[in-house]
């Protein structure tokens, strides 16, 4: 499943792929952990990360809902989780999914960030706050 979705994204984006993320919705007959068990495995996310040579983790959302529930795939830069220009969200819906006993799983990608983003630079903000850019949590 992960390989099929990865191959589809790479066919469209190729080497231009910069942003990435994943999402799932479990139907009302299931538990959110059922969707998480499928998306948070080495067989799903890591296949995608390895195929695009990503250094950062995959941003994600998991939710439970009826058919037509909004699917929101958060994106971030594949190599730099602090690059705010690539903080984006793909928002879509599948009108007839998920059924009560289904899980809807998706990967998302972008070929760039916002061209004129105005949300600042995370690293400049950390410096302004007196934080270590390489260790912002101070641990």
Your description of this structure?
There is one protein chain. The chain is α+β, with helices and mostly antiparallel strands. It has one domain: 2-Layer Sandwich (60s Ribosomal Protein L30, Chain: A). It contains four helices and five strands. Strands 1, 2, 3, 4 and 5 form a five-stranded mixed sheet that branches. Helix 1 (2-13) runs parallel beside helix 3 (45-51). The model has no long low-confidence stretch (mean pLDDT 91).
What CATH first level would be assigned? Alpha Beta
Mean pLDDT: 91
- From the alpha carbons, calculate the radius of gyration and give it in angstroms: 16 Å
One letter per element, helices H and strands E, the order comes to HEHHEEEEH
CATH superfamily: BB2672
Instruction: Quickly give the structural class.
Output: alpha+beta
How would you describe the shape?
globular
The CATH architecture category equals 2-Layer Sandwich
Low-confidence stretches: none
Distance between the termini: 37 Å
Share of helix among residues? 10-25%
In a few lines, what is going on in this structure?
The protein has helices spanning 2-13, 32-39, 45-51, 122-128, and strands at 19-26, 59-64, 71-77, 88-92, 103-110.
Labels describing this entry:
139 residues, alpha+beta, five-stranded mixed β-sheet, 4 helices, 60s Ribosomal Protein L30, Chain: A
Helix and strand topology:
Elements: H1 2-13, E1 19-26, H2 32-39, H3 45-51, E2 59-64, E3 71-77, E4 88-92, E5 103-110, H4 122-128
Parallel strand pairs: 1-2
Antiparallel strand pairs: 1-3, 1-5, 3-4
Helix pairs in contact: 1-3
């Amino acid at each position: 499943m992960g390989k099929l979705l990865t191959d589809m994204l790479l066919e469209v984006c190729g080497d231009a792929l910069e942003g990435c993320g994943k999402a799932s919705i479990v139907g009302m007959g299931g538990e959110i952990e059922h969707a998480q068990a499928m998306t948070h495995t080495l067989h799903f996310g890591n296949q995608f990360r390895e195929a695009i040579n990503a250094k950062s983790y995959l941003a994600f959302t998991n939710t439970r809902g009826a058919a037509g529930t909004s699917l929101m795939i958060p994106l971030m830069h594949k190599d730099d989780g602090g690059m705010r220009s690539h903080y984006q969200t793909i928002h879509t819906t599948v009108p007839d999914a998920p059924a009560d006993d289904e899980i809807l799983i998706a990967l998302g990608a972008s070929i760039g960030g916002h061209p004129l983003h105005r949300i600042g630079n995370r690293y400049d903000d950390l410096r302004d706050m007196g934080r270590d850019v390489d260790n912002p949590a101070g641990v």
